């Protein structure tokens, strides 16, 4: 299993540009998440999904959009990039276990700089 | 809202030293508690967890006990190695009504640990 993969690894955007961060998992997990990690800070949840076709906002959703058309893929879209979106973005997935808090598996991250 | 506070870092230790990284939380209800570790250039991975009061999570020589009375989940290791150098994150997740957990994690700010030979 490759686990959770993210592309690209690095990207520099100009203010106002848009892009899609790709995330794919091959573990057949229903739950998927997008977090951002700012320097010296913990991760903050942007969006999450509990299954194909179902998404919901996290703590910091403004400026982002997501879709979940398949179990495997959970892309994150940035429209009109702003310097405040400079961050490292992590995708994660989780198997749903009844009555338990199961482990989240994280991808290696995408480092995004908006200039 | 829910929050997690970790001790200020970074932490620098010599090999075989004792490690403690403090973590306290604020939550409405009874969260599950986690320690995740991030090695250089990699994503986060679960180190250990505890889901109810007085539970002890352990893995790779690391331990943490869920203390409801002090709302804490401090990470300890008796003898650190150079390979333990990483960033350590304390986190919590809450269960909704009926016990369902969406697994949404609230993280502390992370503690950088550097171990010298």
Report on this structure.
The complex is a heterodimer of chains A (115) and B (117). Chain A contains no helices and eleven strands. Chain A is mainly beta and 115 residues long. In chain A, strands 2, 4, 5, 6, 9, 10 and 11 form a seven-stranded mixed β-sheet that branches. In chain A, strands 1-3-8-7 form a four-stranded antiparallel β-sheet, with no helix packed on it. The termini of chain A are far apart. The mean pLDDT of chain A is 93. With 117 residues, chain B is an all-beta fold. Chain B has strands at residues 3-6, 11-14, 19-21, 23-26, 32-38, 44-50, 56-59, 62-65, 75-77, 86-93, 106-107, 111-116. In chain B, strands 2, 5, 6, 10, 11 and 12 form a six-stranded mixed β-sheet that branches. Chain B has a four-stranded antiparallel β-sheet with strand order 3-9-8-7, with no helix packed on it. In chain B, a hairpin with a 2-residue loop joins strand 7 and strand 8 (62-65). Classes of the chains: A mainly beta (115), B mainly beta (117). At the A-B interface, strand 4, strand 5, strand 9 and strand 10 of A face strand 5, strand 6, strand 10 and strand 11 of B.
């Amino acid at each position: 299993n490759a686990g959770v993969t993210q592309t690209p690894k690095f990207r520099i955007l100009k203010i106002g540009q848009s892009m899609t961060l790709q995330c794919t998992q091959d573990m057949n997990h229903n739950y998927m998440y997008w977090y951002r990690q700012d320097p010296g800070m913990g991760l903050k949840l942007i969006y999450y999904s509990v299954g194909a076709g179902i998404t919901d906002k996290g703590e910091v959703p403004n400026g982002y959009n997501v879709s979940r058309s398949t179990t495997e893929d959970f892309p994150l879209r940035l429209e009109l990039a702003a310097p405040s979106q400079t961050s490292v973005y992590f995708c994660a997935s989780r198997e749903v276990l009844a009555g338990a808090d199961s482990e989240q598996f994280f991808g290696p991250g995408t480092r995004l700089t908006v200039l | 809202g829910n929050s997690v506070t970790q001790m200020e870092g970074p932490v620098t230790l010599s090999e075989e030293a004792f490690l403690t990284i403090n973590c306290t939380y604020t939550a409405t209800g009874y969260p599950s508690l986690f320690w995740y570790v991030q090695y250089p250039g990699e994503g986060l991975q679960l180190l250990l967890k505890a889901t109810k009061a007085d539970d002890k999570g352990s893995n790779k020589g690391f331990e943490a006990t869920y203390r409801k009375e002090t709302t804490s989940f401090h990470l300890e290791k008796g003898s650190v190695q150079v390979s333990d150098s990483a960033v350590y994150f304390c986190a919590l997740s809450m269960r909704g009504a009926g016990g369902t957990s969406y697994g949404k994690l609230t993280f502390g700010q992370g503690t950088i640990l550097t171990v010298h030979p």
